[in-house]
Amino acid sequence: MSTESDITPTPADRHHPLLKLALELGPLLIFFFANLRGQWLVERFPALSELGGPLFVATGLFMAATAISLIVSKIVLGHLPIMPFVSGIVVLIFGALGIYLQNETFIKMKPTIVNALFGVALLGGLAFGRSLLGYVFNAAFQLDPEGWRKLTIRWGIFFLFLAVLNEVVWRNFSDGTWVAFKVWGTMPITIIFTLAQMPLVLKHSINLETDGEK
Protein backbone atom coordinates (compact mmCIF):
# COMPACT_ATOMS: atom_id res chain seq x y z
CA MET A 1 0.00 0.00 0.00
CA SER A 2 1.29 3.47 -0.86
CA THR A 3 0.10 6.86 0.26
CA GLU A 4 0.39 10.12 -1.62
CA SER A 5 3.87 11.21 -0.60
CA ASP A 6 5.31 13.34 -3.39
CA ILE A 7 4.72 17.09 -3.51
CA THR A 8 4.66 16.85 -7.32
CA PRO A 9 1.14 15.85 -8.50
CA THR A 10 0.84 12.50 -10.27
CA PRO A 11 -0.59 12.28 -13.83
CA ALA A 12 -3.68 10.56 -12.40
CA ASP A 13 -4.27 13.48 -10.02
CA ARG A 14 -4.09 15.91 -12.94
CA HIS A 15 -6.44 13.83 -15.10
CA HIS A 16 -9.07 13.09 -12.42
CA PRO A 17 -9.49 16.22 -10.24
CA LEU A 18 -13.29 15.89 -10.05
CA LEU A 19 -13.06 12.20 -9.18
CA LYS A 20 -10.63 13.01 -6.37
CA LEU A 21 -13.06 15.62 -5.02
CA ALA A 22 -16.01 13.21 -5.26
CA LEU A 23 -14.11 10.47 -3.45
CA GLU A 24 -13.33 12.85 -0.58
CA LEU A 25 -16.78 14.48 -0.26
CA GLY A 26 -19.00 11.55 -1.29
CA PRO A 27 -18.88 9.62 2.01
CA LEU A 28 -19.71 12.78 3.96
CA LEU A 29 -22.81 13.47 1.84
CA ILE A 30 -23.91 9.85 2.24
CA PHE A 31 -23.57 10.24 6.02
CA PHE A 32 -25.78 13.34 6.00
CA PHE A 33 -28.57 11.92 3.85
CA ALA A 34 -28.50 8.53 5.60
CA ASN A 35 -28.99 10.24 8.95
CA LEU A 36 -31.76 12.39 7.46
CA ARG A 37 -33.58 9.38 6.00
CA GLY A 38 -32.50 6.74 8.51
CA GLN A 39 -36.01 5.43 9.23
CA TRP A 40 -36.82 5.26 5.52
CA LEU A 41 -33.68 3.21 4.89
CA VAL A 42 -34.46 0.81 7.74
CA GLU A 43 -37.98 0.24 6.41
CA ARG A 44 -36.61 -0.73 3.00
CA PHE A 45 -33.54 -2.56 4.25
CA PRO A 46 -34.54 -4.14 7.60
CA ALA A 47 -31.03 -5.54 8.13
CA LEU A 48 -29.84 -1.99 8.81
CA SER A 49 -31.89 -1.95 12.03
CA GLU A 50 -29.19 -4.16 13.56
CA LEU A 51 -26.90 -1.14 13.57
CA GLY A 52 -29.16 0.89 15.87
CA GLY A 53 -30.79 4.31 15.44
CA PRO A 54 -30.49 6.68 12.46
CA LEU A 55 -27.10 8.03 13.52
CA PHE A 56 -25.66 4.51 13.76
CA VAL A 57 -27.17 3.54 10.39
CA ALA A 58 -25.64 6.66 8.85
CA THR A 59 -22.31 5.84 10.47
CA GLY A 60 -22.34 2.28 9.11
CA LEU A 61 -23.01 3.53 5.58
CA PHE A 62 -20.40 6.25 6.07
CA MET A 63 -17.83 3.60 6.99
CA ALA A 64 -18.73 1.51 3.92
CA ALA A 65 -18.58 4.56 1.63
CA THR A 66 -15.22 5.59 3.10
CA ALA A 67 -13.75 2.13 2.52
CA ILE A 68 -15.05 2.10 -1.09
CA SER A 69 -13.66 5.59 -1.63
CA LEU A 70 -10.19 4.55 -0.51
CA ILE A 71 -10.27 1.41 -2.66
CA VAL A 72 -11.33 3.36 -5.77
CA SER A 73 -8.68 5.99 -5.05
CA LYS A 74 -6.01 3.30 -4.85
CA ILE A 75 -7.16 1.64 -8.08
CA VAL A 76 -7.78 4.76 -10.20
CA LEU A 77 -5.32 7.29 -8.77
CA GLY A 78 -2.68 4.74 -7.82
CA HIS A 79 -2.25 5.97 -4.25
CA LEU A 80 -4.14 6.83 -1.05
CA PRO A 81 -4.39 10.60 -0.36
CA ILE A 82 -3.00 11.25 3.11
CA MET A 83 -5.90 13.22 4.62
CA PRO A 84 -8.71 10.90 3.46
CA PHE A 85 -6.59 7.89 4.44
CA VAL A 86 -5.98 9.09 8.01
CA SER A 87 -9.55 10.30 8.34
CA GLY A 88 -10.80 6.96 7.01
CA ILE A 89 -8.83 5.01 9.61
CA VAL A 90 -10.32 7.14 12.41
CA VAL A 91 -13.81 6.79 10.89
CA LEU A 92 -13.55 2.99 10.84
CA ILE A 93 -12.16 2.76 14.39
CA PHE A 94 -14.49 5.24 16.09
CA GLY A 95 -17.48 4.24 13.95
CA ALA A 96 -17.03 0.57 14.85
CA LEU A 97 -16.67 1.42 18.54
CA GLY A 98 -19.75 3.64 18.45
CA ILE A 99 -21.92 0.99 16.77
CA TYR A 100 -20.62 -1.88 18.89
CA LEU A 101 -21.10 -0.01 22.17
CA GLN A 102 -24.16 1.91 20.90
CA ASN A 103 -22.45 5.07 22.12
CA GLU A 104 -22.81 8.16 19.95
CA THR A 105 -19.93 9.91 21.70
CA PHE A 106 -17.34 7.96 19.71
CA ILE A 107 -18.99 9.04 16.47
CA LYS A 108 -19.37 12.68 17.43
CA MET A 109 -15.80 13.00 18.64
CA LYS A 110 -14.34 11.65 15.39
CA PRO A 111 -14.13 15.10 13.71
CA THR A 112 -12.51 16.49 16.86
CA ILE A 113 -9.85 13.78 16.85
CA VAL A 114 -9.18 14.03 13.11
CA ASN A 115 -8.95 17.83 13.00
CA ALA A 116 -6.83 18.00 16.15
CA LEU A 117 -4.56 15.31 14.72
CA PHE A 118 -4.10 17.22 11.45
CA GLY A 119 -3.56 20.52 13.26
CA VAL A 120 -0.93 19.11 15.60
CA ALA A 121 0.76 17.19 12.76
CA LEU A 122 1.02 20.27 10.54
CA LEU A 123 2.31 22.58 13.24
CA GLY A 124 4.51 19.87 14.73
CA GLY A 125 6.01 19.11 11.33
CA LEU A 126 7.21 22.70 11.03
CA ALA A 127 9.15 22.25 14.26
CA PHE A 128 11.17 19.58 12.43
CA GLY A 129 11.56 21.67 9.31
CA ARG A 130 8.91 19.76 7.34
CA SER A 131 5.94 21.44 5.67
CA LEU A 132 3.55 18.50 5.52
CA LEU A 133 0.85 20.52 3.77
CA GLY A 134 2.65 20.00 0.48
CA TYR A 135 1.73 16.31 0.66
CA VAL A 136 -1.94 17.23 1.01
CA PHE A 137 -2.28 19.82 -1.75
CA ASN A 138 0.21 18.28 -4.17
CA ALA A 139 -2.35 18.03 -6.97
CA ALA A 140 -3.50 21.63 -6.65
CA PHE A 141 -0.44 23.87 -6.71
CA GLN A 142 3.28 24.20 -5.96
CA LEU A 143 4.70 26.88 -3.68
CA ASP A 144 8.14 28.05 -2.64
CA PRO A 145 9.35 26.97 0.86
CA GLU A 146 8.21 30.22 2.51
CA GLY A 147 4.76 29.88 0.98
CA TRP A 148 4.36 26.30 2.25
CA ARG A 149 5.51 27.37 5.72
CA LYS A 150 2.99 30.21 5.98
CA LEU A 151 0.16 28.15 4.53
CA THR A 152 0.95 25.25 6.84
CA ILE A 153 0.74 27.50 9.90
CA ARG A 154 -2.62 28.86 8.78
CA TRP A 155 -4.08 25.42 8.05
CA GLY A 156 -2.71 24.01 11.29
CA ILE A 157 -4.48 26.69 13.30
CA PHE A 158 -7.63 26.27 11.20
CA PHE A 159 -7.78 22.53 11.89
CA LEU A 160 -7.48 23.17 15.62
CA PHE A 161 -10.29 25.71 15.30
CA LEU A 162 -12.49 23.09 13.59
CA ALA A 163 -11.72 20.62 16.40
CA VAL A 164 -12.87 23.09 19.05
CA LEU A 165 -15.92 24.08 16.97
CA ASN A 166 -17.02 20.44 16.64
CA GLU A 167 -16.82 20.00 20.41
CA VAL A 168 -18.97 23.09 20.96
CA VAL A 169 -21.64 21.99 18.47
CA TRP A 170 -22.06 18.32 19.43
CA ARG A 171 -22.04 19.04 23.14
CA ASN A 172 -24.64 21.82 22.96
CA PHE A 173 -27.01 20.95 20.10
CA SER A 174 -29.17 18.07 18.86
CA ASP A 175 -27.93 15.16 16.73
CA GLY A 176 -29.70 16.54 13.66
CA THR A 177 -28.13 19.95 14.12
CA TRP A 178 -24.68 18.41 14.57
CA VAL A 179 -24.98 16.25 11.43
CA ALA A 180 -26.27 19.20 9.38
CA PHE A 181 -23.44 21.37 10.68
CA LYS A 182 -20.89 18.66 9.90
CA VAL A 183 -21.88 18.80 6.22
CA TRP A 184 -23.42 22.21 5.52
CA GLY A 185 -21.48 24.17 8.15
CA THR A 186 -17.99 22.73 8.08
CA MET A 187 -17.78 22.57 4.28
CA PRO A 188 -18.72 26.22 3.62
CA ILE A 189 -16.38 27.38 6.39
CA THR A 190 -13.56 25.33 4.88
CA ILE A 191 -14.28 26.60 1.37
CA ILE A 192 -14.31 30.23 2.56
CA PHE A 193 -11.06 29.69 4.44
CA THR A 194 -9.48 28.05 1.39
CA LEU A 195 -10.48 30.92 -0.89
CA ALA A 196 -9.09 33.38 1.64
CA GLN A 197 -5.67 31.75 1.19
CA MET A 198 -5.54 32.39 -2.56
CA PRO A 199 -3.59 35.69 -2.30
CA LEU A 200 -0.87 33.85 -0.38
CA VAL A 201 -0.91 30.95 -2.83
CA LEU A 202 -0.63 33.24 -5.85
CA LYS A 203 2.17 35.23 -4.26
CA HIS A 204 4.31 32.15 -3.55
CA SER A 205 3.37 29.93 -6.51
CA ILE A 206 6.15 28.50 -8.66
CA ASN A 207 6.02 27.05 -12.16
CA LEU A 208 7.75 23.69 -12.19
CA GLU A 209 7.98 23.57 -15.99
CA THR A 210 9.50 27.05 -16.20
CA ASP A 211 11.91 26.28 -13.38
CA GLY A 212 12.89 23.03 -15.09
CA GLU A 213 13.69 24.85 -18.34
CA LYS A 214 15.94 27.26 -16.45
UniProtKB/TrEMBL annotation:
<protein>
    <recommendedName>
        <fullName>Inner membrane-spanning protein YciB</fullName>
    </recommendedName>
</protein>
<feature type="transmembrane region" description="Helical">
    <location>
        <begin position="181"/>
        <end position="202"/>
    </location>
</feature>
<feature type="transmembrane region" description="Helical">
    <location>
        <begin position="55"/>
        <end position="76"/>
    </location>
</feature>
<keyword id="KW-0472">Membrane</keyword>
<keyword id="KW-1133">Transmembrane helix</keyword>
<feature type="transmembrane region" description="Helical">
    <location>
        <begin position="113"/>
        <end position="133"/>
    </location>
</feature>
<dbReference type="Pfam" id="PF04279">
    <property type="entry name" value="IspA"/>
</dbReference>
<comment type="function">
    <text>Plays a role in cell envelope biogenesis, maintenance of cell envelope integrity and membrane homeostasis.</text>
</comment>
<feature type="transmembrane region" description="Helical">
    <location>
        <begin position="153"/>
        <end position="169"/>
    </location>
</feature>
<dbReference type="InterPro" id="IPR006008">
    <property type="entry name" value="YciB"/>
</dbReference>
<keyword id="KW-0997">Cell inner membrane</keyword>
<comment type="similarity">
    <text>Belongs to the YciB family.</text>
</comment>
<keyword id="KW-1003">Cell membrane</keyword>
<feature type="transmembrane region" description="Helical">
    <location>
        <begin position="18"/>
        <end position="34"/>
    </location>
</feature>
<feature type="transmembrane region" description="Helical">
    <location>
        <begin position="82"/>
        <end position="101"/>
    </location>
</feature>
<keyword id="KW-0812">Transmembrane</keyword>
<dbReference type="GO" id="GO:0005886">
    <property type="term" value="C:plasma membrane"/>
</dbReference>
